Each structure stands twice: as C-alpha cells, then as structure tokens.
Amino acid sequence: MSDDAVQQAREAAEAAAAAAAALQAQAAEAIRRAEEAAALARAAADAATDATATGAAESTPDAAVAPQASAARAQAADGPLDADEVERIRAGYAFEGAALEMGALVNGEALPGVPVRIPIAMTNRHGLVAGATGTGKTRTLQVLAEQLAASGVAVFAADIKGDLSGVATPGASSEKLLNRTDGIGQAWEAASFPTEFFSLGGVGRGVPIRATISGFGPLLLSKVLGLNETQESSLGLVFHYANKNGLALLDLDDLRTVLAYLVGDDGKAELAGLGGLSKATVGVILRELIAFADQGADAFFGEPEIDTDVFLRTADDGRGIISLLEVPGVADKPALYSTFLMWLLADLYAGLPEVGDLDRPKLVFFFDEAHLLFKDASDEFLSQVVQTVRLIRSKGVGVFFVTQTPKDVPADVLAQLGSRVQHQLRAFTPDDAKALRATVSTYPKSGYDLEETLTVLGTGEAIVTVMNEKGAPSPVAWTRLRAPQASMAPSADAAIDAAVAASPLMAEYGAPIDRESAHELLTARMADAAAKVEAEEAAAAKAEADAEYEKMQAKIRAEEEKSRRRAQAEYDRLMKQTSGSSRSRSGSRSGSRSPKSPLEQVLGSRTTQKVIGEVLTGLFGMAKRK
C-alpha cells in the first residue's frame, strides 16, 4: 500500500472516531436531559401528591405542569387514552377546595401524577358505588368513610356483613399493600377512626336504636305498609284520635290495640263525629302490621326513641364519628332495614335547618345493599325516597347508595346522584349484558370502550366520574383506588363489645322503657267496661232467677194450699159419715160413751195419718209444711 493510501485510511479512521465521539456526546447529553426531565416529573408528581393529601387549595405552578404533563404523555402510549385525554382528566380533577382522594388514573399502568378525587363540598350531592360481588365496593365505602371522618364529617353506614367494623382498628401493613399504595402515590400509614356501634332495637351488638310509632308517623308507616289512599287516611284518623285522647303510640301493640278498640262498640261511638272506621280497612291494616312484625319490627318500635342528632357528632380531636349499624341477617328482613333507614333520613330532614351549600356536609349517609331498600317497594314508598333524597341535600346531608348494579336503584333516584364509582360488572347472561349496556349509556363521552372496560376492571379498580366544584361532571376516569388505613378485616368481637360498653349513649338508650301507653290504657278501659257489663248481666240474671224462683215458690204454695184443702175436705167428709152412725148407735146406750167405730179408729190412728201424708206427697210432689 502507498503512503498516500495509508494517509487516507488514517484520516478516514480519525474522522470516524471523531464522528463516533460526537454521537456519544450527543447520546450522553440526551440521557442527561431525559434524567433531568424524569427527575422534574417525579418531583412534580410528589408535590402534587403531597398537595392533594393535605387538601391544599393552591393551583399547580406552571413550572411543575410541563414536566408532569410530559410524564403523562410518555406513559399514555401504553393505555387506551392518548396524551391529550390524560391531560384533560388530570385537569378535570384538579379541584381548588378540599377533596377526598379516590386513587390514581390507570392508563395501562397507574399514573400517580394524575389523581382522581371527589370535592368534599360535592359529597352532599349524593353518589353511587356499584359493582359485582367481590370487586371492592365495601373497601371503597371504607376509604370514603375514613377520609370523610378525617375531614370532620360524621358518617352513618349499615354494616350488613360486619366488614366495616374494622374502621375502629388500625390496619396491618404488608409488602403487597405498600407496593400497591406506592404505585398510586398513596403515602399509606395505619390508622383507626372514632366509631360508634348501633343495633336495631338491641338485636345484635351496639347501642339500641328505637323509634316510637308516634315519632314514625302515619304517612311513612302507610308507605312502608303499602296502604292505599283510603287505608292511609284511616290510619291518619287513628293517629289523630290517639293524640287527641292522650293515648301514646309507642310500639306496635299500642297501634293494634287502638285499631281493635275503634271498631268495637265503645270506639265506634267515639268516632261517630269523625266518620268512623271500616272493619274491612282495619282488617287490612292489622294484617299488614302482622307481616311487618314478622320482619322484626317489634324490636325497632318502642322507647327510648333515639335522637338522630347523635349521628352528627364529632370526636374531641375534630374527626367525624363513624356510626355503624350492625344488622346481620338483614337480607331476610328488607322491610325492617328500609323502614329504619327511611325513618332516619326523614327524621334528619324534619329536624335539621336549611343550610344550603356547605364547604363540607354535616353527615354522609351510606345505604349499603341498596337493592334491599327498593325490593318490592310500593310506588308510594319510592316516591318518598326520591323526595327525601332530593330535598335533604339542603340540610347538609349526603347520601351514597352501595349496590351491585345501577339498575338496583330507581331511575328517579339515579338522576339525583352527583358521584359514581363503578366497579367491575359481569356479563355472563343476556340480562347481565343488557344491564351493562344500560350502564354504559349513562356515562359521559370518554376515550374508553366502557362496555369492554367495565368487564376487565381489576379488584380495587373502578370507573369514576364526579360532580366538580362548578356542578358539572368530571371526565370519566379508570381509577386504581386507594387502600383503607384501618383494618380491612372485621374488628374483634371483644373490641366491639368493649366499645359498646364504654359508649356514653348506653346510659340513655341501653335499657328499654315500658311506660303506660295506649295498649295499657285501652286494655284497662276495656277490662273495666267488660267487668261492668259482666256485673250488670250477672245482676240482671240474678234478678230474673229470683223472680222465677219467687214465681215457683208462689205456685208451690198455691198447690200446697189446694192440696191441704182437698185433704181437709176429704177428712171432714169421712168424719161426718162416721160421726152420723156413731150418734145413732149412741142413742141406744144411755149415759155411756160408745166406743169408736173401726173406721174411726183407723182414720184417727197415727199410722193412717202418716199414710195419708205420703199419699198426698205422691199425688202432688210435695210434703205438707210443718
């Protein structure tokens, strides 16, 4: 090879080396820039997570928005949403006021920098938590209850399966749990929350909850019993009569006794000026009351009646108290369950003042197993539910329905709901598929194929849309939900029993009171009336018997006198016959007393007199009085 060729080869190699060095420098610079961008994105995500966890109301600085949006765009390629849709969701949940942290957006993977939240101020606009069994509804309810309590909002929930009692016990950490919470930006730590346990009428664990029939009122009772307008009007008349006459209606025995009394003779007279009651109508009401009592209603009605203000309390540290109604086996008693919950809402509505829109509600009420509330419910009852849900918002009370599918809740109720958390739905049957399509049709337009997405959600994931601070729906977001801080297992029985025994409410509501009421008063009144009637009937019977006895005695005396005269007449006749023959014979014997004839001797003997008496007795059925 010539020197020129060697020189050219050397120059080419040096040029190639220089080019490679330049490319390496460019690559190093690109890596450095990427690392800086990633660091900025992580810092922005951490800042956003810290800000939302503390309820900060400040807007995200522009310097943090760009890298956070860049990170979202970088991850958008792995999921169904494009970068613009991810950014729209992030902006749609960036509320200014305090909010409940639901979790993080899922787009292939969870995006900690895109939190999904519910404004606390909007929780009084009601909500729905739905999903198939085992998809995490109860845990979602627990997450909401814990954060509401931590924000100073009182919570009421029916603990049907006992799963919620764990809110009173700190949760247990695990590697699996922490991996999940870290992946959605949740800084998890164990915590317990102030909890009060209640029971219906003392059946089960908890402070007994009771209501009086008077406090329940004729309107709601009519709705629960499914009475028609005529029967409802009649029941209202019964309540009016009892109130006017000082007859306290405390339990079902009181109401049954008043109904029975008012169709009796005495009651009819008292209602003569008020239109009266039909026996047929009262019969229907009594039959419905029997069926209602068979559902366990006898345990619920009575005294002392609970003051619903106890459900609005906060603890000494400012956290809201979570009131749990322990109602095991309630699935077999839907009437009792729905009756109590509707009475509670109605009583709260009647007692609370109008407050308008608050920055946080006074109470959030969870209807777990909401399908039981509407099962076999009459149109009148459903109308009452819709009206109560619509109006109670202005009293500072929010209502969340928890059930398997949205179709369990009537359309008029669904129309009142602002927040929706939809867990996985299953489409194993044609009915399931139809319900799935109906559910999808109710969601705002989104970047998801919801009919497919709703069937592939993992446990603890949900499709979420809420009402934002302006009253508009937020974007639909596939969300990986936060984990509860309290125990997800039920609290130990001993711990629940200890909490109930230590409750200050037990002194007031623990023991039932059985004071004199309509049942006792009317029973005594009817007993007195019955005794009076019995006495009068006995006196009349005695007078009649005495009169009959006297009549018989008079007849006996008359017969005796008649028999005596007959016997005397016969005796005189015989004596006259014998005395005539005696005198004729005595004339032949001067100065001497003639002996008695044989007939006289016979008639005058004691034996003959005795025989005559016995004959007379046999003839007339009586003996001569001595």
From TrEMBL:
Transmembrane segments: none annotated. Residues 123-431 form the AAA+ ATPase domain. Residues 556-575 have a biased composition (Basic and acidic residues). Pfam families: HerA_C. InterPro entries: AAA+_ATPase, HerA_C, P-loop_NTPase, T4SS_component. Residues 49-80, 556-607 are annotated as: Disordered. Coiled coil: none annotated. Residues 49-77, 579-594 have a biased composition (Low complexity). PANTHER family: SLR6007 PROTEIN, UNCHARACTERIZED PROTEIN YJGR-RELATED. This is AAA+ ATPase domain-containing protein. It comes from Agromyces marinus.
